[in-house]
Design brief:
Length: 263
């Protein structure tokens, strides 16, 4: 029997933000089992956490179709569950060992702050099919090791984007981030994230995408602390801080479901 939870991450209230599965393991399991659970949960990511002898945790993330190297919202969800269930005390830092190195989480009131590696972009020419379905021409196109990032002329172009998911899947990277300055004074920039290559047409709120968005907008806006809104149907707020080559991602989390895996 394995405990499993569903958590809305980067959510100001239930049924917003990005839902993640959180599976607390007590012993190693097969990769195929984790992939099967992620497929069964059918969320953008399900996280699998297991304690280490030194008090840290191993952490892996699976979409319904593949394992990914970095995931923000499911990391935030896992830290939230470790504190909520009493595995760790509220003032204890969570230390995760992952395929993207050591990631940490700290709790400040009802907000959780993650420490992630920055993923700055390099300008590139658009491959064929990348911008199909976007009504406006990109004013910038860059690439990280995970994704493409396209700045569009305005927030309306981001919100109205209707990309060709079949074409995007052929690009060979995880996904495409589209972004623009926010027209709402509460936020500095808005974004959406499309990842058909990872089995997710649109991810509701993507922490790892902000590892590219934060350095991009910090340079353009001349500030290192910003508030971002991911303009998916569910929507979610991400507080970002650029600290050298690291990104601090902060948001709230709400537990929606608690259960047991019987297989």
């Amino acid at each position: 029997m394995v405990r499993i939870y569903q958590v809305d991450s980067f959510a100001e209230k239930p049924f917003t933000g990005n839902p993640a599965g959180v599976c607390l393991l007590e012993e190693p399991v097969a990769d195929s089992w984790m992939q099967g659970v992620a497929m069964e949960m059918n969320l953008s990511e399900t996280a699998f956490s297991m304690p280490r002898p030194d008090g840290d945790f191993d952490l892996r993330w699976f979409t319904p179709t593949i394992e990914v190297e970095l995931c923000g919202h499911a990391t935030l969800a896992t830290a939230h569950i470790l504190w909520e269930t009493g595995v760790l005390l509220p003032d204890q830092q969570v230390r995760f060992h992952t395929k993207s190195g050591l990631l940490t989480a700290d709790r400040y009131g009802d907000r959780i702050e993650l420490d992630f590696p920055a993923s700055p972009t390099e300008p590139v020419d658009p491959p064929e099919g990348l911008l199909d379905g976007f009504d406006a021409r990109a004013t910038y196109l860059g690439k990280t090791r995970f994704d493409y990032l396209a700045e569009l002329p305005g927030e309306a172009a981001v919100r109205d984007a209707a990309p060709d998911f079949v074409a995007l899947k052929r690009l060979g990277l995880r996904g495409v981030i589209v972004t623009a300055r926010s027209e709402n004074p509460e936020f500095d920039f808005v974004s959406r994230f499309f990842a058909p290559g990872a089995g997710i047409n649109e991810d509701p709120v993507t922490g790892s995408a902000h590892c590219a968005l934060a350095p991009y907008w910090a340079h353009k806006l001349g500030k290192t602390e910003m508030v971002a809104f991911q303009a998916s149907k569910r929507g979610g707020t991400v507080h970002v801080r650029l600290v050298g080559d690291r990104i601090k991602l902060a948001g709230r989390a709400v537990t929606i479901l608690r259960g047991e895996i019987l297989i």
